[in-house]
Amino acid sequence: MFKLLKLLKKSQVFLMMCAGVFIGLQVFFDMKIPVYMADLTVLLSNQAISGAEKEQMINAMIPGALIVLLLGLCSAICSLLLTQLPITAFIASLRKKVFDKVQTLSMENIDHLSVASLITRTTSDMNNLQLIYANMLLALVRVPVVSIWAIIKISQYGSSWVAVFIVSCVLYILLVVFVMKTIRPYMEPQRGLTDKLSKVTIQKLGGIDVIRAYNAQAETRGKFCKVNEDLTDVLRKSQTPKVYLQPGMILAINAMYPCIYFLGSLALNKMPVEAKAFYYSGMTAFTPYAVQLMMAVSMVVLILIQYPIAHVSATRILEILDFDPAIKDGAGAKAEETGTVRFDNVSFAFPGSKECFMRNISFSCKKGDTVAVIGPTGCGKTTLLNLMLRFVDATEGCVYVDGKDVREYTLEELRDKISLTQQKAVLFSGTIASNITYGCEEKLNDQAYIQHAGEVSMSQEFVDKIPESYGAAVARGGSNFSGGQRQRLSIARTIAKPAEILIFDDSFSALDFKTDRSLREQLHEQYPDSTKIIVAQRIGTIQDADQILVMENGRIVGSGTHKELLKTCQTYREIAASQLTEEELSA
pTM for this one? Predict the structure, then answer.
């Protein structure tokens, strides 16, 4: 947990030091108040001073007491602000570091950590750290100052009073030890179950339509309830003992009062009259000092209670920051060609698998070519694209882009050459224009550029019907657009980004045949020098491609043009026969 504090900026450390000064001032003014109480008690008990003289002396004390109260209030406000500002800024910067690190992680790393866990780590874990760091900063100054001051003051009084305070502290500390020992075993399972609950919730909300379609609400509810009950059980076991702490502290403090005053009353009965006023004033001052010291003890206890939770949270944050990405930048390379792609005997195995899923993949394409990939679901089409983009790395063989091994490029260099439309059309909250220019934000105000991308992607026809045109709002995930509209806007974003290689991963599936054909014709006419790689399930989408790769069970089982494959590849003929008429097959 303390390792994270090395990430503090100098400005944040300075603000914390200022906060420490004001916390010290606040304690100083708080400790002055019992002095005024004791002086006032002595004054009121002094029979030798007349009423008028007493009133005059009390009036003289009031300005000083008011100044102490006001200064204490100002110090408290300043200390609170100066404590929260740097801690909040530090947690914000830490959250950004975690986010930036996650951006560097590969798909393999993300799967290992899980999305649900990453969400929990950047929310509740960060909140746990913010809480303990703020309390530690307060305790770091307040507890030593209060303890030293209060111990010096109470040591001036009778040993019987000090014994009462010590007994109260010991009883409270024993309660704390019991609570700490009880809850410690449940800290780590609590975090893991929280991640699991988040994961289950995300899965169920994401698949809510499928759940309803198959009437699986009862089964889904049962899975959620099981995880929820497990988490509730752990929370009950870890949180229930904590409820004894605050009542225990209040009991310890309130038990001191009758004991102090009982012992004081016994002592007062044996004292001469002239000594009673001084002794009573001491008793009046002792009680606030004892309470302040007990509050300091409770602050330390609070930190000890929070520490196991915060320690687990800090470990989870450090796990991300120290995570070694599976995909790393290359040294940087200067391209020898433009728009070329070549797979040289590439094989790929998923993490943890002993056998390669993809085996001996080899093909090449030149600048301006249109290469199509087709095959049954799960045959490795998307994995082929992921290898090109270095979302995953080849287990054997090499993937070349522009004549260089993709592992030689930095990730930024490589991905600047490629623009991708994913299998699932992804839109972000914002406007249509901001979604199209995602990746080339400098074109956001270039209406002609945006409109051209919209026309090529066939998005213009439905955008024209929206009053705000390209300034229309896009809801989260593009939920205010149909599936076909989302696909066309995703394609518009792909072609808007200047790139040598355009990749379309099954991104024409929601388009009707007419729109599909028109869009491909526009791509051919408007981007003749861009290499286009199209993954598709429909024969009609790919039959005009310069080269078609047929994949099955992680292998390329056929390669050539549409007509060539109809003659030479059985898998391709079966796919074509299921989609085309006899006339189309024989044409």
Answer: 0.72
